[in-house]
């Protein structure tokens, strides 16, 4: 009988020990961050179409509830749970940092698919106005529209089609894949000999030799076929942002 109770006691102690070890491991795996800017706390990652709860002040220490991807983390600030951009955070524990060489970057295609899906959702919402970048009312020109879409993935680009080309990696037309930028000349810029000067418009490649872009006040966000005669004649070059 004594042996039975002794065995039972050992089993209980082992269970308690394992439970404590598990709790200790879970606590150790929690990442702590401090905000280096004042990021928005949002209801969902990737897009600003979700609800914005407010701003997390610079210098705030937070526990990471979930590393959603390399661009957003899930946190709880005060009583509200949401997502903040990794652009404005610094990890307090080096092992948890995305700069860890063992960390795997998110697949480029997943990022591209989200950008394209978001662009399509905005087809009936965005209005075209040259020289405009109005996120609140969804009023953009071609390059502010692309800048806005990439920004939702934590990718910052300059405003201006030529500037976006110069800030990316040029690729050939045969190398095009989803999420790449396609640069087109307009009737006004087509006569220039210099490649950069020829660029007058930008769109996002969505596959099947098509682009989605904020085209004009008459068409707003639309999908165009690069095989059409006009786009064949006005195609300038392409560049890659998502590596």
From TrEMBL:
Domain NlpC/P60: 109-242
Annotated Gene3D superfamilies: endopeptidase domain like (from Nostoc punctiforme), SH3 Domains
Alphabetically ordered keywords of this record: Hydrolase, Protease, Signal, Thiol protease
Residues annotated as signal peptide: 1-21
All copies of domain SH3b, residue ranges: 29-93
UniProt-listed SUPFAM superfamilies: Cysteine proteinases
One GO molecular-function entry: cysteine-type peptidase activity
GO biological process: proteolysis
TM spans (from-to): none
PANTHER family: MUREIN DD-ENDOPEPTIDASE MEPH-RELATED (PTHR47053:SF1)
Similarity annotation: Belongs to the peptidase C40 family.
Name of the protein described by the UniProt record: Uncharacterized protein
Source organism (scientific name): Paenibacillus albiflavus
